[in-house]
Amino acid sequence: MSIFSNIFGSSEKEETSNTKVNWIPLTFLGQLDEIVAFSNQNPIVIFKHSTRCSISRFALKQFEREFDFGVDAYFLDLIEYRDISNEIADRFSVQHQSPQLLLIKDGKAIYHVSHSDIDAKELTERL
Fold first, then answer.
1. Cα–Cα distance measured from residue 107 to residue 80, given in angstroms and rounded to the nearest whole number
2. Counting CB atoms within 10 angstroms of each CB, which of 8, 16, 58, 108 has the fewest?
3. Which of 26, 17, 29, 96 is nearest to 60 (CA)?
4. 3-state secondary structure labels for all residues of 24-83
5. How many structural domains does the chain have?
6. CATH number of residue 14's parent domain
7. pLDDT tens per residue, range 42-96
8. pTM above 0.85?
9. Are 72 and 24 contacting, i.e. CB atoms less than 8 angstroms apart?
10. 31 located within any domain
């Protein structure tokens, strides 16, 4: 890793490669219909991340260190897929934030937090 990557951060692929979270990349709008359908059986997590923001990177790393439960977790690079981020805000009636963590159950966002409020331990209490 170069000195610039150490200072300014790394790409999304590097950011999600060394983690125990089995991220599902959220890359097309149709996946939101799947998330709604799947959430009727099991809760679903969506992590919205800005690859240009150090606060988002910190929240992501902290979440990944604490994540230790069995739910499907979707990862959205909201810089590359801003249309999906906008649709998440509309569909789940949440204000756009970055970073942002949403818990989807029965087709609805039953919990959502952003920035320093993102806490995997708090999320487990909501499952």
1. 24
2. 8
3. 17
4. EECCCCHHHHHHHHHCCCCCEEEEEECCCCHHHHHHHHHHHHHCCCCCEEEEEECCCCHH
5. 1
6. 3.40.30.10
7. 999 999 999 999 999 999 999 999 887 788 999 999 999 999 999 999 999 999 8
8. no
9. yes
10. yes
